[in-house]
Design a protein that fits this description.
mainly alpha; 3 helices; about 60% helix; about 0% strand
Length: about 180
């Protein structure tokens, strides 16, 4: 007895369409394999980069430890030198206090004792100077201003320049000399 064929409503692909579908799937498989190969190459490259960075990190940690050790040593050295400097400053102050009377006696022994009223003026640079005469120039030299108000021409005279003030103007009053 043969069983009847059961159809579920799914059409079967025709053989020529089936070959195209298989070719498409093969192409997708090749693309996925190529993508997997590229990703694997990137993974290998990333692993190499991580290894290099890990080595650099280890080197930096070693150098940091060395630098910290140097800083600790220098800190101790600075503290020792600070204490020594303070001790030397105190000793210097004590020695200066002991030396002060000797320095004062030496200064008194070698002091220049010339009376204030006596001054050697034989050298040209030591000649006495006269006080500076601070007066208006026309008084110091016995002259007067250029324009004499008494001798000023009248403003009505055609020969009078336009810049000469008249005898009764404010400018003329300010130019009068006592």
């Amino acid at each position: 007895m043969s069983l009847p064929a059961i159809h579920f409503g799914i059409p079967h692909a025709k053989p020529k369409h089936r070959a195209a579908k298989v070719a498409e799937l093969k192409q997708k498989l090749k693309d996925q394999q190529a993508e997997t190969s590229r990703a694997f190459g990137q993974l290998i490259g990333a692993a190499d980069a991580i290894a290099l960075l890990s080595q650099d990190l280890a080197d930096v940690r070693v150098k940091r430890a060395e630098a910290e050790q140097v800083v600790v040593c220098l800190g101790a050295s600075v503290e020792e030198l600070t204490v020594e400097r303070d001790e030397l400053a105190a000793a210097n102050k004590a020695l200066r206090a002991q030396l002060a009377p000797y320095l004062a006696a030496d200064a008194n022994r070698n002091a220049v004792t010339v009376p204030d009223s006596v001054r050697d003026t034989t050298a040209a640079e030591d000649q006495a100077t006269t006080p500076i005469d601070v007066r208006p120039l026309w008084e110091a030299h016995g002259i007067s201003p250029v324009i004499r108000i008494a001798d000023a021409p009248s403003p009505g005279d055609p020969r009078t320049p336009t810049w000469v003030p008249g005898p009764d103007s404010e400018t003329t009053q300010s130019l009068r000399v006592a």
